[in-house]
Amino acid sequence: MNKFKKNMSLLCAGVMMLSLCGCSSQAVTPTGLVKVGSLNVETAPEYTNESPTETMMGSWSSENGLCTIVKFPTYYDVTLDYENGSPAEVGVAYAETILKAVPDYEELFEPYLYENISCLFGGRDINYEALERRITTLEASIRDEYREEIESFARTISAGEEGYSEDGKLSYIEAITMQLIPDALRPTACSALSVGGSITESGHRISLRNLEWNLGSASQMTMIHSVAHMKKGDRSLTSIAMLGLLDMITSVNDDGVLIGILDVGTVNHMEFVYEGKKCYTFEIRYALEEFDNARDAAEFLSGECQDFTWCNNLLVSDDKDAFCCENPTREVVEAGRAIPVIRDVNSPLMEGLVWDTPDALCILNSFATVGNQDGFTGNLGETNRFVKYNNWVKEIGLFSVADMKGIMAREVVDQHEVVNVHSSGTVHTVIVDYATGDIHVAFTYGKCADDVPEYVLVGNYGDK
């Protein structure tokens, strides 16, 4: 039995024993399991299958009607009308309307952008010439209609400002850079769970996507959550992200194809390559607009993945199917470290991973298919999250939307001894109920995520 399998066996035994009195009362550290006391929420949440809608607090529209922004207590609801305007016109309208709705938008977003840039350079002096080459090269790879939109957005919101300068204003290049954070700078940890109709009360799939990302040193991103309804007839979609972002982080189209991004990276880090690459978040947007089912979208994105800048996992689901696109870059494939795989509930898992519930797909920040790059061995935090998901899903049996909400409300988030499934760095949790088409979202609002998140109904994916 190898070291990883021993660690996994120990974790499984530990968590299974604890399930009798509540999970997660032990923590994984580099030396193994260490008891740190109960990490559960004090009172189990009483969720229902429904989520309330919020009350409108204000509304703003562009003069040409191509963009409308409605403010709710925890998010901004955005409608972008591509049926009556070109992508470039929509980009202008979006920027103009943001500045009406959130006059201090630039002061909120620019510091956050520079925090991400600083992380990229690891605290070293920032080479802005190198960064601009990276950004402009990647931006040139984006499909014309999306590139025209982000360029017109950037020109409008920057109002003539140029260059990188941390001055509380967004310049043109900074506004382009903010659209490419996942492709050029990088996201962080996430997780996803999709349960098929054979194990749901409704007989229809339920998919969950939990986004963990940098919220900003002053939690700026919690102030500009957005739900953007991109109206394009039979190419319409809903994007859950932050105000002003036109790339795809968590999105579902009008056919119910849900796609969420999860970072993976490489074992024994390899050099970042951006020349000749594509922005995967905009290729996801293309897939959502072009495909009406998860299988075709997954096959497209898997076929494109070697041209992406980072290794990533993608949750791709609809009512019928759920897949994890395990997407390595070309450099990783050529080095013999990984291969592109479309994993489903029947795919064999790498040695040591134990998943006990058929028709349920769990995705973390490592590939999991047998023979693929192994990000679990030596990473007890990643392993711990997988074990928690396995045991919690097994306990539930038949899922409801309320049960799926409860998965994210088992642990106290403000802790540092363990790696949580639902952590203080959670940005949003999205649940798509394929029985109704409803999109439920819990937004983090404030300094960090709540132990028991509150969900709101933000729309129905079938609405156009």
Structure, explained:
By secondary structure, this protein is α+β, with helices and mostly antiparallel strands. The chain has two domains: 10-18 and 22-50 and 187-229 and 249-460, Penicillin V Acylase, Chain A, CATH 3.60.60.10; 58-183, no CATH class. The protein is built from twelve helices and 18 strands. The protein has helices spanning 3-18, 87-101, 105-120, 128-140, 144-158, 172-178, 181-185, 280-290, 294-304, 330-334, 380-396, 401-407, and strands at 26-29, 32-35, 58-61, 67-71, 76-81, 190-195, 206-212, 225-231, 237-242, 250-253, 258-263, 312-317, 322-327, 341-343, 360-363, 426-433, 438-443, 456-460. Strand 9 and strand 10 (250-253) form a beta hairpin. Helix 1 (3-18) packs across helix 11 (380-396) and helix 5 packs across helix 6. The radius of gyration is 21 Å and the shape is globular. The relative contact order is 0.16.
Write the layout of secondary structure elements.
Elements: H1 3-18, E1 26-29, E2 32-35, E3 58-61, E4 67-71, E5 76-81, H2 87-101, H3 105-120, H4 128-140, H5 144-158, H6 172-178, H7 181-185, E6 190-195, E7 206-212, E8 225-231, E9 237-242, E10 250-253, E11 258-263, H8 280-290, H9 294-304, E12 312-317, E13 322-327, H10 330-334, E14 341-343, E15 360-363, H11 380-396, H12 401-407, E16 426-433, E17 438-443, E18 456-460
Parallel strand pairs: 5-8
Antiparallel strand pairs: 1-2, 3-4, 4-5, 6-7, 6-15, 7-16, 8-9, 9-10, 10-11, 11-12, 12-13, 13-14, 16-17, 17-18
